[in-house]
Amino acid sequence: GGIAAGIAHELRNPFTTVRGFLQLMQENIDKESAELFRTLLIPEIDRANTIISDFLKISRSAHTNREKIEVDLFVNQHLLKILSNESFLYHATINHIISKEASQCIIEINKDEIIQVFINLFRNAVEAIEQKKLRIDWRADRIEDWLAITFKDNGSGIEPAILSEVFDPFFTTKSDGTGLGLSISKTIIDNHGGRMEVASSQLGTVFTIMLPIMNKVDVGRT
Ligand code: ADP
Ligand code: MG
User: Fold this and answer.
1) Which of 44, 60, 142, 199 is deepest in the core (most CB within 10 A)?
2) Quick check: pTM over 0.85?
3) Cα-to-centroid distance, 49 and ligand 2 (Å)
């Protein structure tokens, strides 16, 4: 993992150089080549850079910047603000229910990473909607010592035959996908001591995320 992350990081410099020169050369070449640079070569380099950035996100973050936070505070002050912006942008509706027991729990999380997980799920939901209006049903419940969050969309669903592969790195059914969104998300949840699962039908897809809840005793001890 460490070596792979090192290589990924080192790949950025040559890419940046090539990208910079392509951009410069665009001005002094014939129209057709300039068009090729603009529509294919530079975007391809940008795509490679996105893959590298996403990969580095997975490998870096194991135990950084965790904090203990009440679910209610995290959801209302952080997560829903961002998801509401996303919904606004994509004309989606988000319906959220958070049980009283869930809202009072304490979880120990890296906020940015957990937000990233839900942004990834949201983007996939947007991409799974064909003509309809996207509707997300988001809910959080306490199940014993777990916070169980479900994220359900009304998209086209995932074929049963590929359901077991969606968390694999680089697995994608999209012509412009990286196949990293769900694998990063699952890694983030695993790193938090949690679990992430998927179920799907023609009516839509539901992701379930379980995060361990901290005991009051543990919270007091810090
Ligand atoms: P990408 O979005 O780049 O394809 P992801 O890891 O985010 O990569 O998703 C992997 C694949 O899982 C997608 O290509 C798609 O086939 C499937 N998928 C993920 N989320 C959904 C969803 N909400 N509805 C339908 N299919 C989905
Ligand atoms: Mg995705």
Assistant:
1) 142
2) no
3) 16
